[in-house]
Amino acid sequence: MTIEERKLTPAGQGNLQQIKLGIPVVEALNRMAEDPMGENEKLLLRILEQNKDTEYGRKYGFANIHSIEEYQKKVPVSVYDDYAGYILRMSEDGEENLITSGKVVHYNKSSGTVGNPKRIPLTEEAFQVFQKYNGPYRMGLVAKELGEDWINGRNMSIAESIAEIQHVKSGVTYGALSVKMIGEFRPYLGMSFTSPDEAIYPESETNTRYLHARFGLMDQDLTNMAANFLGFLLEVLRYMEQHWELLVNDIEQGTIDLGIKMSEEVRSSLLKKIQPMPERAQELRGIFMQGFEKPIVPKLWPHAQFLTGVGSGGFKVYADKIKEKYMGEKIARYFTGINASEGMISVPYRLNDEKSVPVPDSMFYEFLPTDADDDFSKIVTIDQLETGKEYEVIVTNLSGFYRYRMRDAVKIAGKYKNLPILEFIGRIDQTVSIMGEKTTEVALRTAAEDTAKQLGFDMIDFTVYPDVEHVPPRYIYFMEIESLPEGMKAKEIRFFLERNLAKANPSMGDKVAKGICASTKLNILEPETYSLYRDLMIMKGIAPAQLKPVHIIRNELQRKFFFSQTEYGVGLVK
Q1: What is the model's pLDDT at position 280?
Q2: Which of 93, 160, 232, 499 has the fewest beta carbons under 10 Å from its own?
């Protein structure tokens, strides 16, 4: 398709520029896929050469390492604590050349799943890799697979950030990586995104679900949707379903209902950006009145062609619900790969597949079998992976981490050319063990999802608490359920949940059968519990892009919150 750039909308011009940058990146990855080990080894040797004169490089003799084998013998496997002292000197005192010779332009604030948030250094070179694969690569891959008919439309991006960014004492910025990335793009947000600045950089009391939904609905020509974590996009779509009459009335009249929470300053600013749209409102009202039995997104936005977001691991349930209920089969899905504060681990190699492939020019990869019991002699490189086997990812990145344990587990699902295809399993530390049964988050999620499917109800989300105070110890499931089939009782859900958990983790089932562990308890949560938790965390200063699902309760704040939202509980059913 030949595109006349001068005839494009501002969004189209921006999209075209990204496609032009992205096509060569897609082609380069395809070339690297022919010999990924060779490319990855070259990257490692370049990293060692660049950092041989750093304090860390001198300590481990980088200057005398000329092969992967020498590197593995001389440099130990590491964790964050091995760098904490260096990072403190870098971020507080401004010292340089400690773990990296590169210019540190930002410190990523980790999500702090376990323990306190960390400061992960990000060099200029690493940031450029993030930008290349998060923007141009995505647009290039979409264009290669879908063509460019979508190019002129805007994106309903459920992105939220904070306007004020923190700085460490050395003067370098500190915060979620997403905050830095969206900050770089801020001048162009209105051109590309449907959501206004007041939704992307919201005040704590602003009802952003309303703003994302309302401004998205105003744009008839929207062509794609995106969210860092698809759970929030699902919330916005549910809000749209529940409050469509209010949304349509406001679009029709050019008003913002007085019941929508926001400050008067924000309301005044927004009212200057909207005007009555009676024709669009009439069209929307007719679509909504047909109901939600069939996917509604293609009706609301007939030009919509693709969705972007994380769709693997704990996020797969949200991706599946969005597809099944709201989007249908026609809208393609670009599932972002494994992104971490430490670097770009993987990217999708095709649309509509949550699996991804490592990026040979992003970081040097090693893999430790998850059943190796920390026997580092069993670590393998990218060319030695076995299909069907699970591994922990170990990386050497462009920002000063060497043989660093990511604590992310992947399963090898096959090969794309000579690149391994990675299926994200979850965090190594995301397990529950009250009596040595080691139940993974995947098993907990599978039990909950299977129960919802078998009984035919829509589960909003679930959380599990390891109740070690109970005698004998037990798991407590919390579930938020949109609507139960008529006549269904909570004790029936608990019975199926127990059975499915035993299937997902036979060790747990065996311990319950023998009385070593008590039967699982189920607590039904009040409506809007997960939306409330998200709002609470944002009010406490957590960046929206860092809010991951709480599927395992890890701290006292989470415990108190979820127990406070319990409608009723169901214990042992004999």
Answers
A1: 98
A2: 93
